[in-house]
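comment on this one:
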Amino acid sequence: MWRDFQLVFNWLPIAAVLKDAIFFVHGGLSPELRTLGQIRAIQRPIDVPDRGLLPDLLWSIPDEQAEQWVEQDRGGTTLAFGPKVVKKFLEENNLQSMVCSNRFNLNST
């Protein structure tokens, strides 16, 4: 049954944008992410690799104390990112706010 769930997850959307303003993602951002087009370009279905854009989008975590990018160890290596990273991403993509479903909401205002 676990494998069946994994097969379904390989098809699920990675992120969404609501009303051209709010970016929704399970985990967070990636140092590799510059544009939303990069997310659209990820071919589905896909097994999640150990490192790179996709696992960062799924497992990176917002950390209000982080200045930029910080490595975290949560049962595997993942990244934490701070408010400056969020603000830059939102500005560069003409978005207003971001919702990370595995943590909390960081808003640029």
Observations:
- The longest strand covers residues 69-73.
- DSSP finds four helices and seven strands in the chain.
- The first helix runs from residue 2 to 9.
- The mean pLDDT is 87.
